[in-house]
Design brief:
With 295 residues, the protein is α/β, with parallel strands linked by helices. 63% of the residues lie in helices and 9% in strands. It is built from 12 helices and 6 strands. Strands 1, 2, 3, 4, 5 and 6 form a 6-stranded mixed β-sheet that branches. β5 and β6 (267-275) form a beta hairpin. α5 (67-78) packs across α6 (83-104), α5 (67-78) packs across α7 and α9 packs parallel to α10 (210-221). The chain is flat.
Length: 295
């Protein structure tokens, strides 16, 4: 009864939300169907089609170390003496496999679609580690003092997490898997570490800039005159511009007279000398058009 009541409650709340949104914004259900149910799921959008086993392969580079503990974690969980452990393991297995099959059947596949899986699988591996520690205490550490248990537990913890920490550190500090915004973020990170003067620098990036924004905000709080911009026309002569996108490089060279670029960490650093004459005339014309529209 509780299961059916819970399912009914869930359907009522979710269905009510969608009905309310449709009432306030007609066409919402059509947009949901086009973007979430039909369009993105049944059709490949923006050249983001991938093989059916794409997310299974993702495990090998997202979860390289913990992947070896994943199968034992479920195996021990299924045959554990505790009923709660069995129920928990079955729950995580059914939820993980169901979600993985759903996203694997989608025609449009982006690499972050499988991210909700990892906290769930981490819980299962965490349970295995906890079970292993309890077994170790009962079999070998019954008579051991608390000091011995703390020392051994700390050593095992350090050994267990040393490899994942090293892999994460390597991923953050190298350019092997980096996109262009990471390259600018790495440039900023190294500049901060080396205490380089970044006054009068503009970081130009037109896409999602969350990594760059973190470091520029940090520098601005330290009263460093550094800017983050996604509009090429905003750049003023007499400033240094750091860019890592081919599109922004081209736009920059089309609009400004620049110095020979200095390359660092996958970025190009330009000194902006002046606007090109053609771009100045185009800019003046566009401003006049805007003024006429306003008047």
């Amino acid at each position: 009864k509780r299961l059916y009541a819970g399912c009914l409650f869930l359907v009522g709340v979710v269905g009510g939300y969608y009905a309310l949104r449709e009432w306030h914004a007609p066409g919402f259900l059509q947009a949901v169907y086009g973007n979430e149910l039909g369009g993105r799921y049944l059709q490949e959008l923006e050249q983001n089609g991938q093989p059916h086993l794409y997310y299974f392969r993702n495990f090998w580079w997202r979860y390289p170390f913990w992947l070896y503990l994943l199968f034992p974690a479920f195996l021990v969980g299924f045959f554990a003496p505790s009923a709660k452990a069995k129920t928990f393991s079955r729950f995580t297995a059914i939820l993980s496999i169901t979600y993985l099959l759903i996203i694997s059947s989608s025609k449009t596949k982006l690499q972050w679609y499988d991210v909700p899986l990892y906290p769930l699988l981490a819980l299962q591996i965490g349970w295995l580690l906890y079970f292993g520690w309890l077994w170790l205490q009962q079999q070998w550490l019954i008579t051991a003092s608390n000091a011995v248990k703390i020392a051994l537990g700390g050593s095992l913890f350090a050994l267990l997490f040393a490899t994942p920490f090293r892999l994460i550190h390597q991923h953050i500090t190298t350019l092997d898997h980096y996109s262009s915004d990471h390259e600018q973020a790495l440039f900023l990170q190294k500049a901060i570490q080396q205490k380089k003067d970044l006054n009068n620098y503009t970081f130009l990036y037109e896409d999602s800039d969350r990594h760059i924004r973190y470091y520029t905000k940090r520098l601005q709080r330290q009263n460093v005159k550094v800017r983050l911009s996604n509009i090429v026309n905003e750049i003023k002569p007499g400033t240094y511009v750091v860019t890592s996108e081919d599109s922004t490089r081209k736009k920059l060279l089309q609009r400004y007279e620049v110095s020979k670029p200095i390359k660092a960490y996958g970025c190009d650093i330009f000194y902006i000398k002046d606007r090109l004459k053609e771009d100045v005339s185009n800019l003046v014309t566009s401003k006049k058009v805007e003024q006429k529209k306003q008047s």
